[in-house]
Amino acid sequence: MPDADVDEPLVTPSAGHAELVRFLERSATAWAAVTDDIDRDTLVIFGLLEATARIWQSVHSETLARFDLNLAEWTTLGMLRISPPAFRRSPTELRRLVGHTSAGMTRILAKLGDAGLVRRATEPADGRRHDVILTRRGRTLAEESFGALHATERELLRPVDAPARAGLIHTLDELRGALRSDPQDR
């Protein structure tokens, strides 16, 4: 296989769609010369997903940095904010919803508690359970940060029409299901 052209410009996740797809297709062709078991579409699809995930992470990081939050902290506040009537959940429920380890959730709750955004309280019906409760300050920050992030995401999707959005939702859900399914179920 010939060596890659060293003068070829680096393609970043924020590259134009056509440029990124061409790069991924060239990569598939290059890998096909190395191994004969290459599915071009698979390489392009997962390459686009990776680029999209990087952009999505960057958008979230930039938007949430204005509120001194990262995505896990923001998600935790959000889960509490949409848990009426008392804006409370157990640490275990939050850990499962946010998708972090016990140690990770402990760190998140410590930072949010130190900032006065959450507090701990005993569950009235079960004195052994200590729930995490969103404070008034936490509710305000959850609402403001959600509004800012939602506005940013809505603007990013503005050029995508309703039928394309419906198709995207369907396709992403199918892919998510395929990624999460047990290999024996495939």
CATH-derived topology of the largest domain: Arc Repressor Mutant, subunit A
Query: Class of the largest domain in CATH?
Result: Mainly Alpha
* Elements, N to C (H/E): HHHEHHEEHH
Q: How much helicity do the residues have?
A: 55-70%
The separation of the N and C termini measures: 35 Å
How does this structure look, described?
By secondary structure, this protein is mainly alpha-helical. It folds into 2 domains: 6-65, no CATH class; 71-144, Orthogonal Bundle (Arc Repressor Mutant, subunit A). 63% of the residues lie in helices and 9% in strands. The chain contains 7 helices and 3 strands; from the N terminus they run αααβααββαα. It has a 3-stranded antiparallel sheet with strand order 1-3-2. Helix 1 crosses helix 2 (40-65) and helix 2 (40-65) crosses helix 6. The longest helix has 26 residues, at 40-65. The two termini are 35 Å apart. The model is unreliable at 1-6 (pLDDT under 50).
